[in-house]
Amino acid sequence: MTEYLYRDEQGTVLYGVARCSRKGNGCQGFRQWRPDPAKRSGRRWSLYGEDGSMAVRLVPYRLPDVITAVRQARVVMITEGEKDVEALRAHPGITATCNAMGAGKWRPDFARYFHGADVSIVADRDQAGRDHAQTIVHNLMPVARSIYVLQARHGKDTSDHLCAGGTIGDFIEVWAPKPYTLHGIGG
Predict the structure, then answer these.
(1) Most buried pick, 32, 54, 108, 123, via CB within 10 A?
(2) pTM confidence score
(3) With bands split at pLDDT 50, 70 and 90, how would you rate the model's confidence at 25?
């Protein structure tokens, strides 16, 4: 099992995602949890409260890193999932993020973290990935300084690309909805 922790601006764990790959251990696919000191495990295996509403504040994965990168005018790469984020982060100097629960779950309120950001969205090579990238583009257009949409040159997603020997610099640019400009001049 691999675990991904979602933290607030100060680094406090808000919730986590467990990625389970083995069948038969009671955990298949992805399971979300939130801290719950009343439980023996310290976790409640749901992000929803008893009334069915969201019981936690959802934030982009690795939010403190995103905030730092935006403040330092470094590019933030957005992928479809945590595994892809971690594959990018294995390369020095790369900041990456995603949202919990995969494609189609980007939240409009995430835009507040990307004011003035330079963003590269790495879209998975399928319809869900293209739709997800388009949703993020529309959400960030009013606030980001620049936005590019990339795809893996090798395989379906970021992890496939990097595992096949691809580099950060050889993703395929498929769309530049908001290119970086220098002093108001296209660049």
Answers:
(1) 123
(2) 0.92
(3) low
